[in-house]
């Protein structure tokens, strides 16, 4: 059962990567995405467009129910985004709902009582879509943004 879920999850990641690539993003999936490489702080996927860096942790669900994310996963992509100078999101797909991929900025995640994070389906429904990421990355960053 766990292997089947992992395979489905990898398939959804590859599907998202292809979709983003077709929309003009450069896409890198982490080599150990889903592996037990806990010491390294890298995300499931990094996407780039016009000088913008987007760091993604990817979650899917076959039910329209809250998705829970361990604190260390959020901290992992937050740190990676900080080092890369990018923006971190949780990419969510509620499979079979027609909602499509949604991108929740990590600073908008709801914290649980135990210090982990939760994404409610209504929050996901009102979050940015791929088209919103395209609009946000349409213009290149000015050169002086890169010079310290």
- Which descriptor suits the 3D outline? globular
CATH topology: Trna Endonuclease, Chain: A, domain 1
Number of domains: 1
Distance between the ends: 50 Å
Strand order of the largest sheet: 1-2-3-5-6
Which runs of at least 5 residues are low in confidence (pLDDT < 50)? none
- Subunit organisation of the chains: single chain
Helix and strand run = HEEEEHEEEEHH
Q: How many DSSP H or I helices?
A: 4
Helix content: 25-40%
Instruction: Note the main sheet.
Output: 5 strands, mixed
Total strands: the figure is: 8
CATH class annotation: Alpha Beta
Structure overview:
There is one protein chain. The protein is of the alpha+beta class. The protein has one domain (2-141): Trna Endonuclease, Chain: A, domain 1 (3-Layer(aba) Sandwich). It has four helices and eight strands, in the order αββββαββββαα. The strands form two sheets. A five-stranded mixed beta sheet has the order 1-2-3-5-6. Strands 4-8-7 form a three-stranded antiparallel beta sheet. The mean pLDDT is 86.
Give a concise summary:
The protein has 148 residues and is an alpha+beta fold.
Please give the structural blueprint.
Blueprint: H1 2-22, E1 26-29, E2 45-49, E3 52-61, E4 67-69, H2 71-84, E5 87-94, E6 102-105, E7 110-111, E8 117-119, H3 121-125, H4 130-136
Parallel strand pairs: 3-5
Antiparallel strand pairs: 1-2, 2-3, 4-8, 5-6, 7-8
Give structural attributes.
single chain, 32% helix, alpha+beta, Trna Endonuclease, Chain: A, domain 1, 148 residues, 4 helices
């Amino acid at each position: 059962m766990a292997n089947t879920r992992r395979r489905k999850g990898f398939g959804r990641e590859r599907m998202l990567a292809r979709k983003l690539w077709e929309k003009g993003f450069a896409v890198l999936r982490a080599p150990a995405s889903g592996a037990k490489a806990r010491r390294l702080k890298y995300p499931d996927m990094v996407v780039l467009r016009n000088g913008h860096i987007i760091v993604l942790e990817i979650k899917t669900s076959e039910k329209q129910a809250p998705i829970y994310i361990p604190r260390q996963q959020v901290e992992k992509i937050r740190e990676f985004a900080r080092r890369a100078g990018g923006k971190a999101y949780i990419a969510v797909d509620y499979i079979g709902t027609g909602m499509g991929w949604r991108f929740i900025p990590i600073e908008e995640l709801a914290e649980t009582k135990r210090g982990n994070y939760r994404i409610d389906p209504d929050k996901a429904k009102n979050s940015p879509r791929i088209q919103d990421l395209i609009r946000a990355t349409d213009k290149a960053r000015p050169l002086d943004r890169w010079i310290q």
